[in-house]
Amino acid sequence: MKETLLLTGAIIANVLTNVGFKYSALNETVPMKKWSWLAIGLVFGLVNSVLFTESLRFVSLQVASTVFFALTIVGLYAVSVWWFNEPVTMLRLAGGVVILIGVIMMSIPESAIPQ
């Protein structure tokens, strides 16, 4: 349970890091907003790093990394569509499904795999 909360928090913080960076890029002409959003992104990046590192106390590196990076990609796709009105395509949706299937496969404990 604790590992799930830590990894989920790290994923959310990583997505928010990238949202901060996106807003920073979109505010290129307004230096105060640009640097404020960049700072917000960096703070979430620190939170993400701390939470992910703590999750490694409970989860193997291969599982934690797979879940973290894959679900960050899926989360960023969802946020880019919902928040930034980026296009939805069948190819990207199919890619998201493949990623989710991969996460499930990588998360199955060794003890549950028949020998």
Strand-residue proportion: under 5%
What series of H and E elements makes up the topology? HHHH
- Write down how many β-strands occur, each being a DSSP E stretch of 2 or more residues: 0
Instruction: Tell me the overall shape.
Output: flat
Please tell me how large the radius of gyration is: 16 Å
Q: Figure out the total of helices.
A: 4
Q: Which percent range fits the helix content? A: over 70%
Q: What is the overall pLDDT average?
A: 91
Q: For the report, how would you describe the main beta sheet? A: none
User: How far is it from the N-terminal to the C-terminal residue, by CA?
Assistant: 27 Å
Low-confidence stretches: none
Helix-and-strand structural type: mainly alpha
**Domain module count:** 1
Note down, in words, how this protein is organized.
There is one protein chain. This protein has 115 residues and is an all-alpha fold. 78% of the residues lie in helices and 0% in strands. The protein contains 4 helices and no strands. It has helices at residues 2-26, 31-55, 61-82, 90-107. The longest helix is centred in the first third of the chain and has 25 residues, at 2-26. It is flat, with a radius of gyration of 16 Å. The model has no long low-confidence stretch (mean pLDDT 91).
